[in-house]
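Thread title: Can someone regenerate the structure for this chain?

I was given the following input by a collaborator and told the matching structure tokens would be attached. They weren't. Posting the sequence so someone can regenerate them.
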Amino acid sequence: MRAGSARLALWAFSALVGCWLIAPTLVVIPLSFTDKASLVFPPSGWSTRWYTNFFTDPQWTDALLASLQVGVLVAVVATALGTAAAIALTRSGSRWVKASYGLLLAPMILPTVVVAIGVYALFLQYNLLGTALGFVTAHTVLALPFVIIPVTASLRGFDRRLEDAALICGANRWGAIRQVTLPLIAPGVVSGALFAFVTSFDEVVVSLFIQSPYLPTLPVRMFGSVTRDTDPTIAAAATLIIVFTTVHVLAAAFATARRNRVR
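Best answer:
Regenerated them for you:
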């Protein structure tokens, strides 16, 4: 009886925390459909004019395309590097494995503003501020932990004997990894790629430090808009980001659940 009551209380508390976290979302989404020229809640009327403004204003569409381009590049680079790092960490017998693992996960642990200051100082020295290479490099560093964690989890449940069997049958080491290991840990790799893309697409703090008028990402454009005016177009942009991010996170969660079922 006590166990049932404790479980019910835990579920109730979790639901309360969840409602508290999504409450701002429940405000932003209706604001994106307001017919007023300012952010007033609750809306007195409904309109899609701000979504039209978002997709017809070159400043907003250019920022969206920039975020998508950077996000795709970051997903590709971070997935390749993170998967290679996860394979190396799970198979290395070195005493420095734990230290290396902690170092690679450091961007997820350190305050983002600390990372941003360090990135700004480094990029300023090498003239990478405001460049596509700078954005991809900085976002890849932030996204690496989100690739390494799910791929490492997949590798820990991987049966190495399958790879050994491929080697015995004549495959080389790279062929065994490509034809046996990677297909079996694919759900973890896909989850990491999706999380890497979302990390880059949502990043604003580091992007503010390395931004350029010639390469404005969507979060930076939104930050600039909210500091200058109260145009509800920013609510439409925020709603699109919420929907886009939610879809990708659910896809990553589905891939993880599929991996667990396979295991």
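The two ends are 33 Å apart (CA to CA).
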